[in-house]
Design brief:
The complex is a heterodimer.
Chain A lengths: L3 H10 L12 H5 L11 E8 L8 E2 L4 H6 L11 E2 L5 E2 L4 H8 L3 E8 L7 H10 L10 H5 L12 E4 L17 E2 L59 H14 L10 H33 L12 H14 L6 E7 L7 H26 L5 E7 L19 E6 L6 E3 L19 E2 H12 L4 H5 L12
Parallel strand pairs in A: 1-8, 1-9, 5-11, 5-12, 6-7, 6-8
Antiparallel strand pairs in A: 2-4, 3-4, 5-10, 9-10
Chain B lengths: L4 H5 L3 H5 L9 H11 L14 H11 L1 H9 L6 H15 L15 H13 L3 H13 L4 H4 L2 H13 L5 H9 L2 H6 L13 H11 L7 H10 L3 E4 L2 E4 L9 E3 L2 E3 L3 H9 L2 H15 L8 H13 L4 H10 L16 H11 L6 H10 L22 H15 L16 H18 L2 H4 L23 H13 L5 H13 L14 H8 L12 H26 L2 H4 L2
Antiparallel strand pairs in B: 1-2, 3-4
The chains are: A alpha/beta, B mainly alpha.
Chain lengths: 467, 559
Amino acid sequence: MITRREFIERSLASSTLLALGGVVPQFVSAAGAEAKHGHDKILVVLEMTGGNDGLNTVVPYGDDLYYKARPTLGILKSDILKIDEHIGLNKKLAGMHELLEADQLAVIQGVGYPNPNRSHFESMDVWQSGDPARQADGGWLGRTLRHLPAPGAGVVAFQVGERKVPLVLRGAPTTVPTIGDGQAFQLYLAAPPSATNPAAAYAYRPSRDLLVPKPFPAPGVAQAAPYPGGKPAIAPPDPTVAHRKLLQQLAGSQSASAAPAGGMLQFVQRTSLDTYALTDRVQQALANLDRRQKANPDAQRSSFAGEGIGRDLALVAQLIQAGLGTRIFYVAMSGYDTHSGQRESHDELLGKVDGAVREFFATLKTSGDDKRVLLLTYSEFGRRTVENGSGGTDHGAASCLLLAGPGARSGLIGMHPSLKAANLEAGDLRYQIDFRRVYATLLDRWLECDSRRVLGEKFEQVGLLKA
Amino acid sequence: MAANQESLNTLPPDEAWRPAPAAEWNLKWAAHLYRRAAFGFPPPQAGAAATPRQRLADAVNKGRDAAIDALLAADGPTPLDELLDRTGRQLALQGSSRSVYSSSNDAGDGLRGWWIYRMLYSPRPLAEKCTLFWHGHFSTSIDKVKSNQWMFQQNCLLRRFALGSFAEMLHAVARDSAMMAWLDTQSNVAAQPNENFARELMELFTLGTGKYTERDVGEAARAFTGWTTLSGKFYVNEPLHDDGPKQVLGKQGSLSGDDVIDVLLAQPGCARLVVRKLFRFFISEADVPSDALIEPLAVQLRQSQYNVHNCLATMLRSRLFFSEYAYRQRIKSPVEYVLELSQNLNLHPRPDSLSTAAGNLGQQLFAPPGVKGWEGGPAWLNSATLLARHNFAWKLLTNQAGFDENEPPSDGDEEIDAAKSAATEAFKKLASQKGLLGGKPRLGPNIDMSWIVSGANAGNPQATADELLERFVQSDIAPQSRAQLIEYLTEHAAPRPAAAASAPAASERGRRRGRGGTAVADAAPAKAAKDNDAAGDQAADRLRRAAHAILCSPEYQLA
C-alpha cells in the first residue's frame, strides 16, 4: 500500500497537472488523514428507487389484517421464509435468509420519519439529506466524506452504476466519482486502423459495446506496429501520450469567457481533471487485482452477473478487493414503484437483489474482505397497506431496512408496525425507529465518524451491530 | 453554480425580457441560438446542398431576426414531414407483437433512429426540440408501456402541440394511451382508486410539491377513475367511474378528470412551473431564476391560454437569452452532444447508431429514467459519462463507431431482426430523398480527414488550430487552450517526405479509392507510396487527435 504522500507525488509526476496552476484533482486532495489499519470499514448503501413495498419484503404473516389488506398481493404463509412466528421474509429472499441464519443479517422494522411525504422526490430527498426539515447542506453520505479518513489516501467514495450523482453524495469536499463499467473506465485513444496499420474490422455492435474499448490496451502502449513492412530504426513516440497531455491542458485552461462566474465551465473543467487522474488510478488497481487473482487460482473472481444490480455489486466487490481505500459505495436499483401488476415485478426485483447480495458477500469472503463490509438497503417510502384495484400499491410511509454483513447483529430489530386501523397514519404504517438513528449508529460505530457532525444532533443508537 | 445567482436575479425583469438589439449577431450568437432552439445548426433547405457549417454561416449573413422568425415559423407540413410520418408509423408497427420491451430492446431502436432523423433533417427543428422537452416533462417510458405504437402516438401528440397550447396538450396527454399505461390510469377504478396519475399530474405536470394536499391527490384520483383505452382509443368506462361529489383545491362538484385538469390550469402556480422548466431548458441551468424574473412570462403564458409559441418567442428574442447569463450556461444533453458532434464532423451515420450512442451516454429516447424525466445540467456529466463522451468522439473520428449502412448482424431473434431490416430499409429510403434533404446524406462510414482543414491551412499549425477552433467552438476558447493546441500541432508535426507534402488528406483519399486492395498511391513506386502513406497517416492522426481534444474540451460540453 503506498502512502498518501507517495500517491500524490506519483500521480502528479506522471501528469501535467503541476503546470496547471493549482487545479489538482479533488479526490486526491480531499481525504484528510489516513485511516489506520483496522479502522477502514466499508459501508455499501443500496437504494431501492421507487418505494419498495416493505410489507411484502418483511411480511407480518402472523397477522390476519395483513391478508385482509392484501387479498391478491398477500404472500401465502407457506411461501414465507420464517424469522419467527409472526414475521418472515419474502420467498425470493432466500440468500438474505441464509445470511440471517449465518448470523449476518439485521432486519430493521418500522423505520421512517414524522409527517411522511408521499412524493418520490421529496421523500427521497429527506432520506438522502438525512434531514426531514430539508435544511441540511447536501446529503448525509456527502457530509460524512468531510470527516472520513481513507487508507492510503484513496478514493474515499464511489457511486457504482451509470446514473447522475444523487443528492445523498453531494455536499462532499470532492465530487464523488461514478463508475459504471471497470473496462470502459479509461480514455481510449488508440490509433485507428488504416492502410498501413490494418486492424480488425469493426462490426456493427449496437449496444454498450460502442463505448467499451476492445481489446483492452495497457495504458501508454501503442496498439499495433505502424510499420508492418519492417521495423523503423527508431520507434515512433506513442501518440497517445501527447494526446492525453493536450486533453488535460485544455481542461485546465483559465477561462477566457466573460461569463459572470463561469460556474458551468468550472464544473466541467473539474469533472474532466478529476476523471483523467482517476482513470489511471482505477485501471492500475484493477490490473494489479487481476494479476493477484491470476497468481492465486483459489481466489474467487467476481463474476459480472448480467446487467443491473448484480453487475454493479460485482464491480463494488472488485473495487474493494483492488484496495483503492474506498470507505463508501453507493448503488441504486430502480423499478420499485409498483402501482400495478406488483406481484410479478416485485418478486423479480427482490430476487435480483437477493442474488446480487449473496454473490457479493461470497466474493468478498474469498479475500477476507467481507468482515469489514456492511450493506444497507433503503427506499424512499414503503407502500400503502391496502392494495389498489390495479394489483398494485400506492405510495406509503414507514418501511423496513436490511443490513447485511458479518458485522450486523442478526435478527429482527424493533417491532413490526401495527396494521390496526387505529394505529395507521392516513392508511399507512407508522414509523417507530427514526431513520436518522440508523444512520447515527452506522456513523458512530461502524465508520467511526461523529454522527453529530453529520446529522447536526445526537440520536439514540439502535442495536444493529455486533458488540 | 450559485455564484452568479445574485447577478441574474438582480436584473430588472422587464429589461431582461425586452428584445435584444439585433446588431449583436455573429457566429458565436448564431451557434448559441441554434444549439438551444435547434440541434446545433439551421435545418437543411429542400434542394440546397449545404453542409451544416455553411448553413450556420448563411444564418449569420441573413441576420438575427430572420433566423429567429424562421425557427418560430409554423409552416404547414412539408413533403418531408409527410414522408417522416409515414416512415414512423411503419417503424412503430415493427415488433408490435412483442410482449416484452425494455429500454435496451433493439425493437425500439428503429423508432429512436427515426426521431433522431427528424431532429437532424426536419425543416422545423424548434418543434423537434420542444417535442424532446415535452418528452422530458411528460416523461413516459417504453419500459412500462411496452408498445412501440403507443410511444409513437404519444410522440406525435407531443409534436402536434409542441409549440401550441399547453392546456390543450395536457388534456390530450391525460387521454394518451402511453400515458394511461405509464401512470396506471387505465386500471384506476372507483372501488379502489389508483393515485399514480393524479399525484404526478399535480406534482410534476402542473403545480409542484407543496401546492396541494394529500386529500387533493385522493379526490383527483377519483375523478380519473374509469378512464381507459380500447384499441388505442380513449374512452370512459362509466360503471368504473366515480361520479360522486369531490373537492380539489377548493373546487367542489362531481368533478370529471377534465374538470380537475381545468382546476389545475387555473392555478397561477401551473404557468410558473412550466415557465421555470422552459427557462432551464432554453436559457440557463446554472441559475435558479427568481419569482420576479419568471412572473412576466408566467402571466403572459396564462393570459394567452397557455400559448407556448408566444412564450418561447419572448424568451428567444430576449436580451437575457443573448447575454452571458445564458451563453454556455447549459450542459449539452447526450442527444444534443451526439447530434452536434456528427454534424460538426459532417457525418451521416445510421440514425439508430446515434440514438444508441445517446442512450449509452445517459439519454435513451422513449425510456427516460423515471416519472421526473431527465434532470439535466450537471447531472449529465460524471466521471463515467464524461469518459463515455470522450471515447464516443474518438470512435467517431477514427471510424470505429460501428456505423455501417448495411444491415446489422442477426440478433438471433426473428422479430428483432425483422425490425432491424425494416429500419435499414426505411433509413435508406429516407437517405435517398436528396431533393428533399439537400446536401448528400451518407449513411456510410466515410470518414475523410481532408475536409477538417482546408488545403491552404494544412501545413501551418496556427492556421490549422484556428480553423479547427472556428469549426467546433466558434473560436471561443481560452487563449491558453489555443496556444497549447498550436504547440501540440507544432511539436508533433510529422516529418513530411516531399512526395507526401501535397496535403495530409491525400493518402486518405488514395486509401479510400484503394479500399479492398493493398495498392494505394496511383503511380508511385511501392516504397515511396508506403513512406507517403505513413507520413500521411501520422499527419491525419495528429489532426484527428487535435480535433478530438477540442471536441472533449469543457467548452464543447456546454450548450
